[in-house]
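Risk register update: the risk of archive-format incompatibility is retired. Evidence:
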Amino acid sequence: MISTYPERQYAVRCIRLGAAGYLNKSADADEMVAAVRKAAAGGIYVTAATAEALAAAVGRGGAATEALSHREHQVFRLLTTGHSVSEIGARLGLAPNTVSTYRARILEKTGTKNDVELALYAERLAQGGTRP
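Archived output:
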């Protein structure tokens, strides 16, 4: 998988969901070729950064965000970037009440109490930190 997002944010999640590897689009051409060859041969390509993220996830039992469903993860990313419940609903084609239900589940799964704590939690994860 080639993504615009840094490996520390999504690599572990994508590999757990079946991706044969994860590269940021800024990877050099040689690395991309090596990744495609490894995946085509049935292997899983991981960079040093992805290997560290995988080791950290195993060591701490995984971040709470890994327990989120795909839709919960979408809502999580939008909440932590400052979008309101109604904006998220409009963007994802969901009723605001549905988004609020996802928000409540996300807060419970991450052990946070409000959107500010959730945003701080997301920032710690993005920096390679652990659970609050």
